[in-house]
DNA sequence: AACTCCTTGTTCAAATTTGAACTCAACTGT
DNA sequence: ACAGTTGAGTTCAAATTTGAACAAGGAGTT
């Protein structure tokens, strides 16, 4: 230690490309969804995640982790979406302190209407811009990045 | 048109990995910077960008574009950082309506103290987790993604 | 049961972000 | 000089996010 191992040009390029693409893509998708359907990207992800879950329902904490959001933030968003009729809250059967967020029929309908435009945007902005090799590198490399960060929050074992 | 060209598994993997890594990395860095130095990632980026600019100063709008932020958001952040003594506002010489944000000596000092830890974190959570090939794919592919989005906002030529 | 510790989800205030409206300055054409 | 238009920054209210504090349940121990 002592001296910092600065990024060289090649590393810097990767870093800058990653961080700016991340910001821009997120912003772009948010706008597309908002214009087309009045949904935020976060809300879309919530609907998507619930829709895939069995019974279309999921515990708040698990949902928060899945979409990478704070618990209080999720409470807020589910509140909004409940007002909009996209989801409902229901008590968890086997635990009195648990709450299930469940997608409604209207939620599913909204998702179905939103999905085509969203997927098209994802292709146009990201997926179709990458070569198959780059896609693989992104899937593998960034997948590993994600897993490592997720593990480290979990394990807690900080050596 | 008509039928949606859904993402296949390979594409889905790339998409999911990208979006979750993006969220997690940003979150992680924000936390590291905040704990170590009381800076948000955005503030770090502002200091960084100003520090590199000649004379350590830059027009508000250009700065906003560079760090990918709304103009009003930047006005707010520069306000905060001005209170904290990290930057100053100065009138643009050749344009009375222009404002220059300039990094102060204290700002530079803060940046210098923050940089080593930040770079280390960037390595640990992203750069060193990728193979050189993956880094190249990320730099090239996501660089292209970034450029395309940037162009399209610019050109405005929507056909 | 009484006690302690951990987990769930919510609440609350403060910080931040967003987008539209607004103020001036700069540029155009007359 | 004078409208008409555009560009730069700011302001403002509303929406969202954050993190700490909180109420209530579970689970384990004595």
Kindly name the structural category of chain A: mainly alpha
The count of DSSP E runs of length 2 or more, i.e. the number of strands of chain A, is: 3
**What is the second-level CATH architecture of chain A?**
Orthogonal Bundle
What percent of residues of chain A adopt helix (DSSP H or I)? 55-70%
Number of helices of chain A: 6
List its salient traits.
homodimer, 159 residues, mainly alpha, 3-stranded antiparallel sheet, globular, DNA-binding
Secondary structure topology:
2 copies of one chain form a homodimer.
Chain A: H1 9-37, H2 41-52, E1 57-59, H3 60-66, H4 71-83, E2 87-91, E3 99-103, H5 105-125, H6 132-155
Antiparallel strand pairs in A: 1-3, 2-3
Helix pairs in contact in A: 1-5, 2-5, 3-4
The structure holds a DNA duplex (30 and 30 nucleotides).
Task: Describe what is shown at a glance.
By secondary structure, chain A is mainly alpha-helical. In chain A, 67% of the residues lie in helices and 8% in strands. The first copy, chain A, is built from six helices and three strands; from the N terminus they run H-H-E-H-H-E-E-H-H.
What features would you describe in this structure?
Chains A, B: One of its GO terms (molecular function) is DNA-binding transcription factor activity. Chains A, B: One of its GO terms (biological process) is response to stress. 2 copies of one chain form a homodimer. Chain A is mainly α. Chain A contains 6 helices and 3 strands; from the N terminus they run H-H-E-H-H-E-E-H-H. Chain A has helices at 9-37, 41-52, 60-66, 71-83, 105-125, 132-155; strands at residues 57-59, 87-91, 99-103. The first copy, chain A, has a 3-stranded antiparallel sheet. In chain A, helix 1 (9-37) packs across helix 5 (105-125). At the A-B interface, helix 1, helix 5 and helix 6 of A face helix 1, helix 5 and helix 6 of B. Chain A binds a DNA duplex (30 and 30 nucleotides) through residues 40, 42, 59-61, 69-77, 80, 92, 95-99.
């Amino acid at each position: 230690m002592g001296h910092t191992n600065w990024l060289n040009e090649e590393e810097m390029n990767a870093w800058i490309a990653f961080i700016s693409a991340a910001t821009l893509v997120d912003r772009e998708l948010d706008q597309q969804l908002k214009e087309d359907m009045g949904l935020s990207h976060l809300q879309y992800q919530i609907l998507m995640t619930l829709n895939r879950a069995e019974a279309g329902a999921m515990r708040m904490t698990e949902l928060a982790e899945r979409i990478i959001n704070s618990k209080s933030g999720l409470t807020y968003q589910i509140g909004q979406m409940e007002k909009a009729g996209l989801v409902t809250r229901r008590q968890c059967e086997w635990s009195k302190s648990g709450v299930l967020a469940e997608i409604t029929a209207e939620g599913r309908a909204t998702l179905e209407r939103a999905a085509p435009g969203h997927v098209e945007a994802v292709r146009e902005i990201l997926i179709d811009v990458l070569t198959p090799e780059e896609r693989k590198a992104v899937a593998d490399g960034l997948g590993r990045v994600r897993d490592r960060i997720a593990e480290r929050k979990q394990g807690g074992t900080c050596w």
